[in-house]
Amino acid sequence: MRDYSLLIFDWDGTLVDSIGRIVAAMHQAADRCGIPRRSDEAVKGIIGLALPQAITTLYPELDEAAHVERIQASYSDCYVAMDQTPSAFFPDVERSLASFRQQGYQLAVATGKSRRGLQRILDTLGWQDYFDITRCADETASKPDPMMLQEILEHCGVPAEQALMVGDSSFDLLMAQRAGMDSVAVGYGAQTLSALSAYQPKLSIDHFMQLSTWLSSRVAETRTEESEHVG
């Protein structure tokens, strides 16, 4: 059984209930830029990617960088206007994160958000130093490239087999696979558990507290095995 010492979390749709705002902001950006809206499901399907990649995935017919940049700027303006009060954490997230810290886990964030966007939220929450490291899409390679996970592992001094990626999108879980890391699929965010099952997560959850329960059971099982071995 693998013993995890580092827990890495996606942000939107995993820790915070922001999917509705992301979808609405993308629709508003499309309206502002005079391009057709994509369906809610199509927008959910690109959540997790860096914003430029997300836009070109939604609108592959756009062949000029200026068009992508205009949509990106419109989306950012719309989202920030909606997000003056940060999106709420999902139930039991704050309590569970605090418990993980008390138990000695290192905590990290790997997100498709921009550094400016994530930092604005962390500053509002007073969480500037809450995580051991955070990595954003505009300062490294976009998911599902494993670079941001590799950078987190290097910073924390932890091998991939001792880290766990928790996310709600195929990009999160594929990134973890490519980094040689176990993953947990979250079913209450952007994508369904059935869609995420193809990436062979170690655990699938539809409530954040299930992660705490699972990790605690693993620790208890490991201690029992060690006790029996000593005996």
Automatic annotation (TrEMBL):
Coiled coil: none
Keywords assigned by UniProt, alphabetized: Metal-binding
Family annotation (Pfam families): HAD_2 (PF13419)
Claim: Signal is one of the keywords in the record: no
GO BP, sorted A to Z: DNA repair
Signal peptide range in chain numbering: none
Any one GO CC term of the record: cytosol
Domain of life: Bacteria
Any one GO MF annotation of this record: phosphoglycolate phosphatase activity
Family matches, as InterPro entries: HAD-like_hydrolase_sf, HAD-like_sf, HAD-SF_hydro_IA, HAD-SF_hydro_IIIA, HAD_2, HAD_sf, PGP-like_dom2
Cofactors: Mg(2+)
The name this protein goes by in its record: Phosphoglycolate phosphatase
Species of origin: Phytopseudomonas punonensis
